Amino acid sequence: MDLNALISSRSSVINGSGIRRVFDEAAATPGAIRLFIGQPDFPVDAAIKGAAVAAIEDAEGKNLNGYTLTQGSADLLAAVRKHVQWDLGWTIDGTTTDAMVTSGTSGALFLAALSLLNPGDEFVIPDPWFVLYPYLTHLCGAQAVLCDTYPDFRMTAERVEPLITARTKAVLVCSPGNPSGVVLTQREQRDLLELCRRKNVLLISDEIYDEFGFSESMTARRAADASVPACPSAAREPGAQDAVLVVRGFGKTYGVTGWRLGYVVGPRAILHEMRKLQQYVYVCAPAPLQAGAIAAFGVDVGPHIAEYQRRRDLVVSTLSKVTEVAMPGGAFYAFVKVPERLGMTGEQFYQRAKREKVFIVPGRTFSARDTHFRLSFAARPDDLRQGLEILVGIMRG
Fold first, then answer.
1. Is residue 306 helix, strand or coil?
2. Which H or E element spans position 158?
3. I need a labelling partner for 390 at 20 to 30 A (CA). Which of 145, 190, 304, 347 fits?
4. In 237-290, which ranges are E strands?
5. Cis, peptide link before residue 128, omega less than 30° from 0
6. Which residues pair with 205 in a beta bridge?
């Protein structure tokens, strides 16, 4: 049997994630210095784990190991609504605005794309992008339109506007960005929202790193109250709930990436379609882990963010002596330019660093260009310092 003849073109043209390739190669390298993983290295808070364990053990006989409602457990949805009211000022009453729990933020983005895009539609995404973004359109038969954000990695309304056509359905913005860590200002977010409103397209705000904002990215609200999430968002603008789909998650903020839990809030008409699709794609997010996510809203991650800011400062101060690094205002990545004098692509630089057992991700994984590499500082401090020393040595030749 010719099994290759049975494979769909939808699947066959998709490349495996470049991040996973690096993951596999690092796993096969003794003593690898891992500066590539987009996963927090701090321990999961005991309250979060305890709530999940209690749900799994099901001491009260509530059957929390069974299915929840497709849109999420009633208790977690109530916690999400309360948090969004406090953070964004939205009232989610299920009439014009709604909420649902998803199998990670990737699950939310996939359902959103399936709900919005027909063959031939256009979807504006940033370049560089998170690895999933281009494939969202491919799987729907739509077209990803790349917004070139080099060299500062700011997806501004000025850059987006020329890309919007009669076929555009949505604009996808990610702030703090992956792979750059760059954070848009509230004014830049407002301008994007106003543009999308004028053009009658949806703004999708991927806010998976919403709590990972560093001091210079703080909103006025954060300056007055340290418990308020730092990062600016278009969703904080008056009336934004009619025009913005907000996607957030628990994995990056609380270190539970393997739990695959996210949530989305936005216009009910779109959430209604996403909920229908979730019934057949994911059924529901992992039930007992939803109980753990409820406890997450009471956990202070401020000390972890302060530690990551110190690591960010080390990365920027070290690498800026030998190359260009856009300042990460949040998340835990830096998108670093390969010095032109080396005459290397991002892939070639990756191969050179790999010989020294330093693993980063070449820029082509995230971009139509291959001039940079992504470095994650969610790594052990000793490994980070050693890796930076090696990378600087390579750049200096």
1. helix
2. helix 157-160
3. 304
4. 244-249, 262-267
5. yes
6. 173, 246
CATH number of 66-296: 3.40.640.10
pLDDT tens digits along 288-339: 999 999 999 999 998 999 999 999 999 999 999 999 999 999 999 999 999 9
| CATH fold of 3-44+301-396 | Aspartate Aminotransferase, domain 1 (3.90.1150)
DSSP-derived secondary structure for 353-393: HHHTTEE-EEGGGTSS--SEEEEE--S-HHHHHHHHHHHHH
The domain locations on the chain are 3-44+301-396, 66-296
Residue 324's Cα: distance from chain center in Å?
Answer: 23
* Amino acid present at 121: D
User: Are residues 192 and 203 in contact, defined by beta-carbon separation less than 8 angstroms?
Assistant: yes
CB contact at 8 A, 198 and 241 = no
How far is the C-alpha of 374 from the C-alpha of 220, rounded, in Å?
30
**Alpha-carbon span 302 to 92, nearest angstrom:** 27
Which distant-in-sequence residues (6+ apart) come within 8 Å of 116 by Cβ?
A: 123, 169, 170, 202, 270
Q: Tell me whether domains 3-44+301-396 and 66-296 share a fold.
A: no
Residue recorded with tokens 């278009």: 234
pTM above threshold 0.90: yes
What Å distances lie between residue 288 and 49, 55, 57, 58, 82, CA to CA? 11, 5, 9, 9, 20
Q: List, for residues 201-254, the tens digit of each pLDDT value.
A: 999 999 999 988 998 766 555 545 555 556 899 999 999 999 999 999 999 999
As a whole number of angstroms, the distance between CA 181 and CA 247 comes to: 17
Run of H or E residues at 35: none
